[in-house]
Specification:
The structure is a single chain. The protein has a single domain (2-150), classed as 3-Layer(aba) Sandwich (Rossmann fold), CATH 3.40.50. It has helices at residues 14-26, 46-51, 68-81, 101-113, 131-150; strands at 2-8, 34-40, 54-62, 65-66, 89-96, 117-118, 123-126. It is 43% helix and 25% strand. It is globular and about 40 Å long. The chain has 153 residues and is of the alpha/beta class. The longest helix is centred in the C-terminal third of the chain and has 20 residues, at 131-150. It contains five helices and seven strands, in the order E-H-E-H-E-E-H-E-H-E-E-H. Bound molecules: flavin mononucleotide. Flavin mononucleotide binds at residues 10-16, 60-64, 95-100. Flavin mononucleotide binds next to helix 1, strand 3 and strand 5.
Length: 153
Amino acid sequence: MKHLLIVYHSQSGKTAAMAHAVRRGAMHPDIESVEVRMRAVADAGPLDLLWCDAVIFATPENFGYMAGAMKDFFDRTFYPCQGRLEGVPCAVVVGAGNDGTGALGALRRIVRGFPLNEAQEPIICRGQIDENVIARCEALGTTMAAGLEIGVF
Ligand SMILES: Cc1cc2nc3c(=O)[nH]c(=O)nc-3n(C[C@H](O)[C@H](O)[C@H](O)COP(=O)(O)O)c2cc1C
């Protein structure tokens, strides 16, 4: 089995809904050899990162940056994971009010620092979440899981 991790943070539910959609997509019935683990970021730690073969980070944008809880996760996990995640594929999902680029840019800096491999285009949802965003999140989950299964990353 390959392992796909989804780590998310959400205060009012939007980013959580995006993360759940990613998870649904990743658990597509045609994908048989990928185990999906979804963790609220406060409950996630280095063992989750070391477990996974691919990871999707989902965060709101707060004050032009990723959520503090997500930054705390990276602060807590960097040293235990240093040198052990090189090239692991990842993707980024951002729930934003009207921007999201600050959170994405900050996450990308950290992704490069670990260094992970951003394997798919990010998704930023500005304003209300709608069916189109949910469908894109589901597709991202399916693509990441299918890519893991067939070994394209
Ligand atoms: C403290 C705080 C700061 C925020 N700062 C930004 C911001 O800089 N840019 C932006 O686009 N939205 C900002 N927002 C809006 C949130 O990103 C947006 O409401 C998001 O959908 C919240 O995600 P959640 O529902 O998963 O908590 C901010 C919200 C809060 C609570």
